[in-house]
TrEMBL record:
This is Purine catabolism PurC-like domain-containing protein. InterPro entries: CdaR-like_regulators (IPR051448), PucR_dom (IPR012914). Coiled coil: none annotated. Residues 9-129 form the Purine catabolism PurC-like domain. It comes from Phytohabitans flavus. Signal peptide: none annotated.
Length: 384
């Protein structure tokens, strides 16, 4: 997101000063978070790291020990580099002791052999930084918008993974806790190379945290799960230099949230309906709510109770899961109630081996016996 020292040196205002790198060339790819002009020797105490420090040297120590301490303080705080304009304190070049100290600490040291207004340099660099931040903000906004749309649409895991790979520009894999691949997108790479021996390869990817980058393996990983129950990992292969950008971590986490939410929605779609009916039937049975309120809530569910009958069925399970019988019966009404409006979804309560299952029916009084017979037949046959 931030420009590097190398990129800053290439800007027109800096090139006007005829820059020359005299030490720390290996650190020219350090990001420049900000530019700070200073003429005091204890400036390091005011910095946070990542700054490119500009100075003419007029306030720097005259003795070698003081110069070494100045460079050491800057290196310790993590500055991106030091730019010294010649002509005021140092005429032809910076002191050798400064060059040696900077080289020893791997800190870029740049001479400007021609007078250059520092304000032009700071304006140019800060414009780059602000533009980069705006670009990052727009990219993050697009990420949230895309995955919000996928969440609302109830997109399948394969669609979410595909979108993540398209936005990241790199392969993305969704695996479960058994290291089995649930979905993947190669982003143009070879699927065979990506998935060959995946289980063994996945076990070697051990990030430190829920979302972290394993530099040895080259994968950015985030955990997928919700409500305290993790069920998989989402991985993106990063082929760039250094750690992946923050935007990629945000993208992967947002994709993981969409996957977790989608799984909850699919799992709870039927359960939520049953939960609502269970609450309504419990109120009817326990008389915990006024009748008018129960009728009003039932009407809101699309089940008017006015001049209708409620049929209660007690089912004793014989070696079957308590949930299996009600679920089977829930599909019965399509073909069974020939003279009745379609009954609504069931609700039940489980107590020991007995399930209380009630169905809200639009049947007239004469149809109750017919419905009861049909329910009994369905329960006996175990069909839905």
């Amino acid at each position: 997101m931030f420009p590097t020292v190398r990129e800053v040196i290439g800007l027109d205002p800096v090139r006007h000063g005829e820059p020359r790198v005299v030490a720390g060339e290996a650190g020219l790819d350090r990001p420049v978070r900000w530019v700070h002009a200073a003429e005091v020797p204890d400036i390091a105490s005011l910095l946070n790291g990542g700054e490119l420090v500009l100075t003419t040297g007029i306030g720097l120590p005259a003795d070698d020990a003081g110069v070494r301490a100045f460079i050491a303080d800057l290196a310790d705080v993590g500055v991106a580099g030091l730019v010294v304009e010649l002509g005021r304190r140092y005429t032809s070049s910076v002191p050798r002791v400064m060059v040696a100290a900077a080289q020893r600490r791997g800190m870029p040291l740049v001479e400007l052999r021609r007078a250059t207004p520092f304000v032009r340099i700071t304006e140019a660099v800060h414009a780059l930084i602000v533009d980069a931040q705006l670009t990052e903000l727009r990219a993050t906004e697009e990420i949230h918008q895309r995955f919000t749309e996928l969440s609302v649409e109830g997109a399948e895991p394969a669609d979410v993974v595909h979108q993540a790979a398209a936005l990241a520009g790199c392969p993305v894999v969704l695996e479960n806790l058994a290291r089995q691949v649930l979905a993947y997108d190669t982003a143009g790479d070879s699927a065979a190379l990506l998935l060959d021996g995946w289980e063994q390869h996945s076990r070697r990817i051990q990030p430190a945290g829920r979302t972290a980058y394993d530099a040895d393996a080259g994968w950015l990983v985030t955990t997928v799960g919700a409500r305290g129950q993790d069920w998989g990992r989402l991985l993106a292969r990063w082929a760039g230099e250094g750690a992946p950008p923050t935007r990629l971590s945000i993208l992967l986490e947002r994709a993981a949230s969409t996957l977790a939410l989608g799984r909850l929605m699919r799992r709870d779609a039927e359960g939520l309906e049953h939960q609502i009916h269970r609450t309504l039937l419990t109120a009817l049975l326990d008389h915990t709510r006024p009748v008018d309120e129960v009728a009003l809530r039932a009407r809101a569910l699309g089940v008017p109770l006015d001049r209708r009958h409620l049929l209660g069925v007690v089912v004793r399970h014989r070696g079957r899961s308590p949930r299996s019988t009600p679920r089977a019966c829930a599909t019965w009404p399509k073909r069974s109630a020939t003279r009745c409006a379609r009954p609504r979804s069931p609700a039940w309560r489980v107590r020991s081996t007995t399930t209380l299952w009630a169905r809200l029916s639009h049947c007239p009084g004469r149809g109750r016996r017919e419905v009861t017979v049909r329910v009994r037949r369905r329960l006996a046959s175990g069909t839905g």
